[in-house]
């Protein structure tokens, strides 16, 4: 899992989660929100965020595979 822009500032550059078969990007976001604290605030459903799987933009409904890289970032980020 990688974070960019303001998410990186709040949560750090990256972290790992154990893989669970059938997990979607939306489910990962919800798991992280459930941690509370900075995760709940930065990834809240009221926050408009984009995600990418293996450096390709994707919808949160995408199913993840073991070894995939999932990234979350605000809709507009700098270069």
From TrEMBL:
<keyword id="KW-0547">Nucleotide-binding</keyword>
<comment type="similarity">
    <text>Belongs to the MoaD family.</text>
</comment>
<dbReference type="InterPro" id="IPR003749">
    <property type="entry name" value="ThiS/MoaD-like"/>
</dbReference>
<dbReference type="GO" id="GO:0006777">
    <property type="term" value="P:Mo-molybdopterin cofactor biosynthetic process"/>
</dbReference>
<protein>
    <recommendedName>
        <fullName>Molybdopterin synthase sulfur carrier subunit</fullName>
    </recommendedName>
</protein>
<dbReference type="GO" id="GO:1990133">
    <property type="term" value="C:molybdopterin adenylyltransferase complex"/>
</dbReference>
<dbReference type="InterPro" id="IPR044672">
    <property type="entry name" value="MOCS2A"/>
</dbReference>
<dbReference type="InterPro" id="IPR016155">
    <property type="entry name" value="Mopterin_synth/thiamin_S_b"/>
</dbReference>
<dbReference type="InterPro" id="IPR012675">
    <property type="entry name" value="Beta-grasp_dom_sf"/>
</dbReference>
<dbReference type="Pfam" id="PF02597">
    <property type="entry name" value="ThiS"/>
</dbReference>
<dbReference type="GO" id="GO:0000166">
    <property type="term" value="F:nucleotide binding"/>
</dbReference>
